[in-house]
TrEMBL record:
Taxon lineage: Eukaryota, Metazoa, Ecdysozoa, Arthropoda, Hexapoda
Name of the protein: Methylenetetrahydrofolate reductase (NAD(P)H)
Similarity comment text for this entry: Belongs to the methylenetetrahydrofolate reductase family.
Listed cofactors: FAD
Gene Ontology BP annotations: methionine biosynthetic process; tetrahydrofolate interconversion
Metabolic or biological pathway, per its Swiss-Prot or TrEMBL entry: One-carbon metabolism; tetrahydrofolate interconversion
Amino acid sequence: MNILLGLTPTKLVAPNGIPPIVLKECAPELTPVLCKLFNYSYKLWIFPSNSKIARVQPVPEKGKKTLPSNYRPIGLLSVISKIMEKAINIELMEYLEHSGIRSSLAPRTPRQASIIWLASSAICSLLASFLSNRSLQVVVDGVSSNSLVINAGVPQGSILATIVFLLHINDLAPIPVRQIRNERGRNVDNINMELATILEWGSNNLVDFNANKTQACFFSGKADLTVPNISLSGVTIPLKTSIPMLACQLLMIYKAQIRPVLEYCSDIHGAATKHTLKLLDSVQKRVIRLVGDASRTNSLTSLEHRIKSNIPRTETMRETLIVDTASTSTTTYAPTNPPDLNHLDRERSLRLRNDFFSVEVCPNRALDATLLLKMAPRLCSVTWHAQSVEEGMPAVRLAGQLREQGHEVLLHLAGRNLNEGQVVEILDEVKRLGVRNLLVLQGDPSHFLEKDDAKCDFPYASHLVKFIQEKYGHYFVIGVAGYPEKQPKSENQEEDYNYLEMKVSCGADFIITQACYTLERLTTFVKRCRSKGIHVPITPGIFIISSFKTLKAMSKFCGISIPQDIFDIVERNKDNEETVREYGIHVATQLAKDILSNRELFEGFHVFTLNNFELLAAVLRRLGLYAVEIERSLFIEENSEKEWRTLYQRYHAYVLEAELI
């Protein structure tokens, strides 16, 4: 099931015609069926023949489009085939790690003995079946060619292909690295000898090397690049000054290997002399020239090279780190082991600043708890992607952990796939953990209700809100979702307002909206709600753009309308991830400023982060909300005369009546 749930819905449809989103959405129903099918295949050690068909689509590369050699074939395989391959790959990798073939940290099993043991096992029959009798069809503009049988190599786009190929070339002798000064000719002779050894190995193991695609690069501080010829299969390899590397960019190497060293303890470099700092600056300048493709005669102040390399000067890096260190050094954080949270006055303790913001946290993604604690959001909302009690427990546990760390927690709860007993089981555990805020979601439009939904206990969010109110009284503070734009399943937006009014009348205490990118649309939504008699607090949602792919996915699956100017800018820079992230931070910052300047309409803003807290931290810095000093302790002594309330609890009807009296 984990493999099915991990599928990317936007992948292209494979030869069997089943889109990945169908397999992902139907994972609970399909898991037993696929398990039975795969186990039967493992028992017979036969890979299904209909999973060996590949669909090839030619993609043009550089050069004339009339030449077939300038096209790169992209193979598409069946999604079910890839699911089966992934299951096999997990078991195979575990075996290889344990036997010492792949990992140097594994038990020291002799490599030759391991390969012999593997060769005698039945898995080789399955791998042989996987590689044999494969075929492909070329598809252009929806027209398919005749099938062509593949009698060599591994299938493109396959999950198992990589590990099978690596096992095949595992006995290729390693090439020794030689560094001999002033013996350029001798080095080239040694390289030619090693290339001859590789060709001999390839001949013995049925592996051909393409000399026309082989390249050589000469590294030297001198301008003279005169060296003897390097040849492969009688073809002279052209000597180049630079070579583009697939999936490996110099900028990535710099950020992973060089920049951390330059930034380490750089906040104390301010006392060093300029002569000493010059040693570090020279390293940065060399990187800028290398990544920015600038020669020694080019000035580093050139904007063209600066933009191309996207690398700041060392003095800029030092200044940024010094400011960050200074701003965070005065911050008081919540204690690691807080006291009993029943003694927490949430309404008072959470008003650490006048500007309210909350953060969405995903339980199925990596979480930077330290950075989250630094940002000190007024609320941490934990998302719910579960279809059962068991799948929902990680979200419940995360909510409890965040509360132990001193955060006020808002737990999402989707009721369409839960019955009354399951909801009670979940909420009893939530109550035991002391979490009192809920965001009830899913199942609003009645005319889109499916047959199975009609039988469930909570087809609408309003039903679940009403059930929680009747079962637990006013213990839980309940929020619901609002849509500044038309909900994807609704016929019109007026219908959305009617459903929202129904949810509030059933007991909802506040509203968090879907992500929106224009203040005008948010303002219209709030004013329309007020005219409908909806007077609970409304917090607008903001999604920080991190990539073009993510933006398209949010637009497609969440029904978010992206302003054309924003979409065009992101699409135009989609290959420059840093530029897109910077623009996303700018858009979110400007929208947050507009929201905070309209206090009469909005309580604050809620950020959908996908656990990418670094983007949110950048927005908060620009808003002046990051690392705000907490003037008093987060925890206070209990006062028997004070009634304890959560952040939104003051909006309960009985609380308002008491205050009026």
